[in-house]
Amino acid sequence: MNIIKTLSLTAVFVLSVVSVSFAAGNVLTSKAITGAIPSSPADKVWETTASVEMDLLPQIVAVPSIGTATISKARVWSVNNGTEIAFKLEWFDSTRDEALNMPDKYSDACAIQFPLKDSDKPNLAMGEKDKPVYIVHWKAAWEKDTAMGYQDVEHAYPNYNVDGYPLVKTVENKAVYPVNSFSDEAKAFMAGIAAKNPVSNTDRRVPVEELNAEGFGTLTSQSSQDANGKGIWDYAYWKVVITRKLMTDDTADTVLSKERTSIISFAVWDGSKGNIGARKNIYEGEWLNLKIE
Amino acid sequence: MAKVKNWQLGREMDFPYPEHRPKKQIAYVFDTNKCIACQTCTMACKTTWTVGKGQEYVFWNNVESKPWGYYPLGWDVKVLELLGQQKWDGDKYAGKTIFEAAPKGEPALGYAPEDLDYASPNLGEDECKDVIKGTEDHYIKGPVHSNWGFYLARICNHCTYPACVAACPRKAIYKRDEDGIVLVDQSRCRGYRECVKACPYKKPYYNNTTRVSEKCIACYPKVENSEMPQCVTTCIGKIRLQGFKSHPDKIRKNNPMDYLIHVRKIALPLYAQLGTEPNVYYIPPMHVDPKYLKQMFGPGAEKAVQMYRNAGQDKELLAALLLFGSTEKRIEAFKIKGEMTVGYDKDGKEIVSVPLTEPAIVRPAKVEQSGAYLYNNT
Ligand code: SF4
Ligand code: SF4
pLDDT class for B284, splitting at 50, 70, 90? Predict the structure, then answer.
């Protein structure tokens, strides 16, 4: 554990030196637009907005890690209208992995990370004690949940058969109902749901989740969810838009504002390569500068 | 990595956290010689804890036919193969544990089972020798051996050095200080399945509906109430006993767990070489190739088998063994009183007494009055 700590402190030190000499290409500019911000990755506005291509590296600071990058490049765009901001991420991934309802399936995903406090430059690996980070996380599986209804056992195994579930009435000898139709008493037999674990949310309205972290292993879902998003898989490219207000009422959200340079970083997961949690690809192992026009 | 003492290996080993032994350590002894693979334990566990949606394939308790049965498919041969050939030097393990053999960036040497590995619980059931010919058509290739087999009942080992705890990056799995039971915090787990990958016994399971991992909870509501878990108290073959075991330096001879595990060393850990210090102890089966038993139960296996063969003449051992399946209550101490073995609860109150020998009545096979022969007359 100590070794990890030392390593991460070294990483922070190196980063702060490197950050002074950010080249022009290392700045992501959030272009000012008028009117509604784009909620879709297919919106025309992205075609006239400059992007930054990012090289991705495997996360290796913390255990578990991945040896080599499973996604090596991603492209990012940003626009804002003074009230709301949108980011678009795009990366090549020939497999569309959007299942979390089988023991050996993992979801494609991406995340954007900001320091919670403007003045901080926390450890890139999920922040650090007293230097929290704010994260917006999109998952392909959540996209499918929101589009097609909660993906459950009957979707993973369409021909499966079950005698019954406790306190769930069977009709025509079938007990295969959407879990959302279960009574609270019946849901008590599903511990994650009964414990109100945010990842067991069977009634997801948006494909993104806002979280905070103060170091590795401390990722915590926010009680107030203010972000939105939309991802499409288009000819082997994931194209994902994540939107939120520049400023929200939630003190756990990073405040973004015009004429201010913030720092931002990105992570991308490839489900079919077993990427989940810390097994991910991250932007060059450093923070990127974000300039909001 | 910290250096911790693993008494089952007779040496120190690497583990991500410093040594911390709970105030009490839950332990079980399973007598493999008595298991009939009726799966009553499996169903008792299933109907008590894993009957919800998303748990269709989940068996916190399973009973598999060895050598060819598994759940999930091939779990132990896969882990042993990953680890490669290792050695015992007498009672000391001279090889590597799953923590010491962990590849860079991994918490332990392990693998993630595939969905299909869970598709046929105990595929290979009751196949002892002939079905496996090592040909292409069979689900697993292996050597043909002489005819032997046995049933291995398995639950989470509530390990002293749990690989699941070591692997969880969120520290969502914890070992309770009061009884050593290992639990997954259902509100913190994010379903990364690092525990599933790292646990060599493959005892954490991913819930397909809640998308978080779950594992055996040792029926803690019963255990807290001085009762033994469901898989123990429902066992038809009376093969199981649950209690708390002491550290080998502080054993209490009249504690049936300490007596069987530490004093007599007849109950042995399953694949101790993996390094997790598992706390389900097995009395090895009598009719199995000793080499196989050594691989599975360590260097003490042959001696344990001999001791078991002689149990009828070994009054004290018999006294401990006859407590199995005699009560739902946890037996904290036992004593021989005349021709009875007596079990006591934590307050020293007598809770059960069992005769050391049952009266045997031999009935003649032929009934003289009618001249009929009796079959199955027991
Ligand atoms: S058997 Fe597996 S799940 Fe149970 S405590 Fe040990 S490592 Fe964890
Ligand atoms: S109930 Fe007992 S005898 Fe039956 S399978 Fe389980 S452990 Fe074996």
Answer: very high
- The helix, strand and coil proportions of chain B, stated in percent and rounded to the nearest 5, come to 20, 20, 60
Q: Which residue has the tokens 């499409």?
A: A232
In a domain, A199, yes or no: no
B211 touches chain A (CB under 8 A): yes
Q: The domain spanning residue B228 has which CATH number? A: 3.30.70.20
CA distance A89 to A267: 10
Residue A19 lies in a domain: yes
Asked whether residue A227 carries a pLDDT value surpassing 50, the answer given is: yes
Q: In total, how many domains does chain B have?
A: 2
Domain identity same for B237 and B324:
no
The interface pTM score, or ipTM, of the predicted complex is: 0.91
> A283: distance to nearest CA of chain B, Å?
19
Cβ neighbour number for residue A171 with a 10 Å cutoff: 9
Please give the Cα distance from A272 to A76 (Å, whole number).
Answer: 23
Running DSSP on this structure, what letter comes out for residue B255?
Answer: S
Tally of residues, chain B: 378
Mutation to probe ligand 2, out of B30, B32, B39 (largest number of atoms < 8 A from CB): B39
A269: closest CA of chain B, how far (Å): 12
Centroid of ligand 1 to alpha carbon of B201 (angstroms)? 7
- Quick check: B351 and B327 in contact, CB under 8 A? yes
- Backbone φ, ψ for residue B31 (5° rounding): -95, 100
What's the pLDDT tens digit per position in B321-359?
Answer: 999 999 999 999 999 999 999 999 999 999 999 999 988
Model confidence over B142-190: pLDDT tens digits?
A: 677 788 999 999 999 999 999 999 999 999 999 999 999 999 999 999 9
Computed on alpha carbons and rounded to an integer, the radius of gyration of chain A in Å comes to 20
Q: State the residue for tokens 């190196």.
A: A14
Task: Write down the pLDDT at residue A156.
Answer: 96
Domain of residue A85: give its range: 3-150+204-292
Residues of chain A found within 8 Å of residue B183, distances taken between Cβ atoms? none
Atom 1 of ligand 2, residue of closest alpha carbon? B235
Contact B207, A199 (CB under 8 A): no
For residue B230, give its domain range. 2-245
With respect to residue A73, please indicate whether it lies within any of the assigned structural domains.
yes
CA B40 to chain centre: 16
- Minimal CA–CA distance to B204: which of B104, B97, B113? B113
Domain identity same for A183 and A208: no
Give, for A110, the enclosing helix (H) or strand (E). Answer: strand A109-115
Provide the domain count of chain A. 2
Domain annotation covers residue A42: yes
pLDDT score of B373 more than 60:
yes
Residue B77 confidence (pLDDT) above 50: yes
Is the distance from CB of A210 to CB of A225 less than 8 angstroms?
Answer: yes
Out of A110-124, B20-34, B92-106, pick the least confident: A110-124
Residue B287 lies in a domain: no
pLDDT value of residue B62: 98
